[in-house]
Design goal:
With about 475 residues, the protein is an all-alpha fold. About 85% of the residues lie in helices and about 0% in strands. Helix 4 runs antiparallel to helix 5 (about 85-120), helix 9 packs antiparallel against helix 10 and helix 11 (about 310-335) packs antiparallel against helix 14.
Length: about 475
């Protein structure tokens, strides 16, 4: 199998080869939620509420599951660039051990406390039973979700994003069939109601995790889980935790920020919430290609730093940010001119919410290109091992700038809800400017992650040797 070389050749084509499968995979992942909501909606409003009330918990766990494997992806990309296959395989095995251990712990706690969580979320008595059952099955499935996240992150870090995309496509198609089968029942399969949606997802996630794990056990894609690498390496676990935790916090911060902005929109009434909901849906769709380019940049930068090609990593960041700016700015221009028909697609009845949503989209859309700049630079920081920098940029953008600005403009000026809308483009531009300044300083070039790991390992080995000698 011919593999994509990221340490030589054209930069632009390499970034596109990496980012396109990642974008498609992320788009397909969103189909899970859409499919579940569609079929559960055929049951009752209470059934939809039972699924929806667990969404914040699911989102938080997805942030943890998606963030922690980032450490393995960064290390794999740098070790591959360095040409150290032994270290690549050791990292793969240890990342699996580390994440599976965390998944088992979270799954156990979540399963036992599911009903308490649902009650804490304020579920109505009629919803508690179904919601608890749904959440328990969901928690059981997170063992497989985390396993697939590890596989997906490692494959992307290695520069092989196509297999995860194909697996996601297959499982999404399977979920389309299993959802109605388990929810309504057929033949020997009893109707499970709301729990059937969780069970369908559980089965598809288990299949995805199995395929991914088998691929790594066979070693046919350049990475190989070997028995000798499965002995727990506590030093690696510590490194993985401190590398991956900032990525989890970053994702959680963004999710929590959207929740807080929703609460602020809610203070202006139901129409404002509806308009905000439409705008955020569009925003999420735009962020998906930016996220794909960010992950591609992270892999590219990691491999080139591992190979010692710092200048090539810097050029890739500038090219990625430029291309992303052009693509997302084009999307923004199109959305600006088609804001009304797109809004009417979601709210066909029209009314005040449509006008508010159109205004929101026309204010926010011209700033889409700046989102890409920020996310590409964050990808560079992650690829270099500076995951804390990416986390700090998210915190500064949302909690130091966006939310305070939104509150001041909306509550202490005559702009009212329009002030809330203006906080989005202003924070997008601000975050991009902070990112450019941070990137230009060049701190990420000085980060030598692999050397730091080798130094810690050398110190540990010396201490072990000295203790053995003394004893």
């Amino acid at each position: 199998m011919k593999r994509l070389s990221l340490t030589e050749g054209p930069i632009l084509s390499s970034l596109f080869s990496l980012s396109v499968p990642i974008v498609l995979s992320n788009l397909l992942q969103s189909a899970y939620q859409i499919t579940d909501t569609f079929w559960v909606g055929r049951l009752s409003a209470e059934a939809v509420a039972a699924v929806s009330i667990s969404f914040p918990i699911s989102f938080l766990l997805m942030a943890i599951g998606g963030g922690l494997p980032m450490a393995g992806a960064v290390l794999v990309s740098q070790y591959k660039g360095k040409g150290d296959d032994v270290a690549v395989n050791h990292t793969v095995a240890q990342t699996f051990l580390f994440i599976i251990g965390i998944a088992v712990l979270l799954t156990s706690i979540g399963y036992v406390s599911a009903e308490h969580i649902i009650r804490f979320m304020g579920a109505a008595p009629a919803v508690i039973s179904d919601a608890t059952l749904f959440l328990r099955v969901t928690f059981l499935g997170y063992l497989f979700v985390f396993m697939f996240f590890v596989f997906e992150s490692l494959m992307r870090g290695f520069g092989e994003p196509k297999l995860p995309m194909k697996i996601v496509l297959a499982t999404v198609l399977l979920n389309l069939v299993l959802d109605p089968l388990f929810i309504f029942g057929y033949g020997i399969i009893p109707p499970m109601g709301v729990a059937g949606a969780a069970m369908a997802t559980f089965c598809t996630q288990a299949l995805a995790a199995l395929i991914g794990t088998l691929a790594l056990l066979r070693g046919q894609y350049g990475m190989h889980i070997r028995l000798q690498d499965l002995r727990p390496d506590l030093l690696f676990f510590r490194q993985a935790f401190f590398l991956g935790l900032p990525s989890s916090i970053e994702q959680s911060t963004r999710a929590l920020g959207m929740t807080v902005m929703t609460l602020l929109a809610a203070s202006f009434g139901t129409m404002a919430v509806a308009a905000y909901g439409i705008g955020v849906r569009m925003l999420i769709l735009v962020i998906i290609p930016a996220l794909g380019l960010s992950i591609a940049t992270s892999t590219f930068v990691g491999q080139n730093i591992g190979a010692g090609h710092i200048d090539r990593a810097e050029r890739a960041t500038r090219i990625g940010a430029g291309i992303g700016f052009l693509i997302l700015s084009t999307c923004g221009v199109l959305l600006f001119f088609f804001a009304r028909p797109l809004t009417l697609f979601f709210i066909p009845e029209g009314g005040e919410a449509v006008e508010m949503a159109v205004t929101f989209l026309k204010i926010v859309s011209p700033s889409f290109g700046f989102i890409s700049i920020q996310m590409v630079i964050n990808g560079t920081f992650r690829g270099a091992g500076l995951t804390t920098a990416a986390m700090m940029m998210a915190i500064i953008s949302q909690w130091v700038f966006q939310f305070p600005l939104a509150y001041i403009l909306a509550k202490h000026t005559n702009l009212a809800v329009i002030g809330l809308w203006w906080a989005f483009p202003l924070s997008n531009v601000f975050a991009a400017m902070v990112g450019i300044a941070w990137f230009t300083r060049g701190d990420w070039k000085k980060k030598n992650l692999l050397a730091e790991i080798e130094l810690r390992r050398s110190v540990r080995d010396e201490l072990v040797t000295e203790e053995g000698t003394v004893s």
